[in-house]
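We both want to read discrete structure tokens more fluently, so let's practise on a single case. Once you have written the record down, we can walk along the chain together.
***
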Amino acid sequence: MPLSEYEQRVLEQMERALTSDDPRLANTLQSTGRGNALRYVLSGAGVVVGLLLLVVGAATSQTWLGAIGFVLMFAGVVFAFLGPRKKRQDGPVGVVGEDGTVQPPEGRARKPRKRQGGGRSGGFLARLEERWENRRNQGGQ
């Protein structure tokens, strides 16, 4: 059943909002998975051949053949679940300053991280505790 004009307009608005809010996610969702099919076929073939080697190695009491089969099966599964690596950008990654800290190269400024909790260092649990206390204090007044 085709979408109505109103539904198509709403869908287009949602797509534009997604693209403007999170362009990386939009690019990931729009990319085609043509390479994934070949990846899964190769992984499946590796697992099947590895399983055959494992069975033949066990049947003929050749431990080394079974070990090779197991490694091949494991490699096939890892290859299937690991995504393709992204190409690295050429150029400087950062510049070491006089104080020993790594600064981003010119033209690639990074936003400083905000510290929560009035400058005190704390992890995830400290932030959760602080938020919990804020809620209790606001609710008790």
The helical segments are 5-21, 23-30, 34-59, 63-81, 124-140. The longest helix spans residues 34-59. The CA atoms of residues 113 and 119 lie 11 Å apart. The mean pLDDT is 78.
